[in-house]
Specification:
The protein is 71% helix and 3% strand. By secondary structure, the protein is mainly alpha-helical. The chain has a three-stranded antiparallel beta sheet with strand order 1-3-2. Helix 1 runs antiparallel to helix 2. 6% of the residues are buried.
Length: 268
């Protein structure tokens, strides 16, 4: 049984030893070539000083010298990798190198595809922004052309429009004031003897202003004197009307003087 196994294994051992011998021989051959190149470089004569007419030849020789030195340095630094002549070993090495190259190329392809996708997204976004800028530019150009063509016309039309708006606002204000006066006069008239029956004798003898008069004073003070819009509450102001204005949020008391009130600035 052992003899049969030795017979089966002996061919493989002989092939391995033969392959090692071939590799060793090829390595020795490469080292011999490296030594020859090194000796040839060392045997090159030292270049002397040349004249101006021989400068091109000097540069050529210097370039050749640098190239030979670079080759020697590369061969000294690089480990000798001789391809075996055995077909089985050569096939295995080539398959390994091919598989490694395929993996590297696949990784490179994946990276390039991701980078391309990112660049396409950036390009789409930049195109959108550029289109928006073009739209803004076209709008501004049209407005500029319209302003240059009709500057005087637009100015006169704006003045007419403002004058018309002012006139309409004045008419609307007059209408509001008439409606306010009618409403206040109807529902909050000037206190009479009948309305002052609940008050004491001293208050019944006084002459009070109507609520409309109080509102007119507050509004005029608010518009004429914005820095000090407060009005003093004197004996002519009927207390129930003052309390009504305060509770309804139409008037406010002075924070330091309760005898002074002001109109709430609804226009601000």
């Amino acid at each position: 049984m052992m003899d049969e196994e030795e017979v089966i294994l002996s061919p493989n051992l002989s092939q391995t030893r033969q392959a090692e011998t071939e590799l060793r021989n090829e390595c020795e051959t490469l080292w011999v070539q490296v030594n020859k190149i090194h000796e040839r470089v060392n045997s090159e004569p030292t270049l002397g000083v040349l004249g101006d007419t021989e400068q091109p030849m000097l540069q050529i020789l210097q370039a050749k010298s640098k190239r030979l030195e670079a080759e020697v340095h590369t061969l000294d630094a690089k480990e000798p990798q001789a391809l075996p002549t055995n077909p089985t070993i050569l096939k295995a090495l080539l398959q390994k190198e091919l598989s490694k190259s395929n993996q590297e190329l696949e990784q490179t392809l994946a990276f390039i595809q991701a980078q391309r996708k990112e660049l396409e997204e950036d390009l789409t976004r930049e195109k959108s922004v550029l289109e928006q800028h073009y739209e803004v530019k076209r709008t501004l150009q049209s407005k500029l052309e319209a302003a240059e063509d009709g500057t005087e016309t637009s100015r006169s039309s704006q003045e007419k429009e403002l004058h018309q708006q002012r006139k309409s606002a004045a008419e609307h204000q007059k209408k509001l004031m008439r409606n306010l006066a009618a409403f206040v006069s109807k529902h909050f008239p000037k206190p009479t003897e009948k309305t002052k029956q609940t008050a004491d004798r001293e208050q019944r003898s006084k002459e009070y202003m109507s609520l409309l008069e109080i509102l007119e004073i507050l509004m005029n003070k608010c518009m004429d004197s914005e820095s000090d819009p407060y009005v003093a509450v004197d004996e002519t102001c009927w207390p129930p009307y003052i309390e009504l204005l305060l509770r309804c949020g139409i008037a406010l008391r002075h924070p330091q003087d309760y005898k002074r009130i002001r109109l709430v600035p609804f226009h601000l």
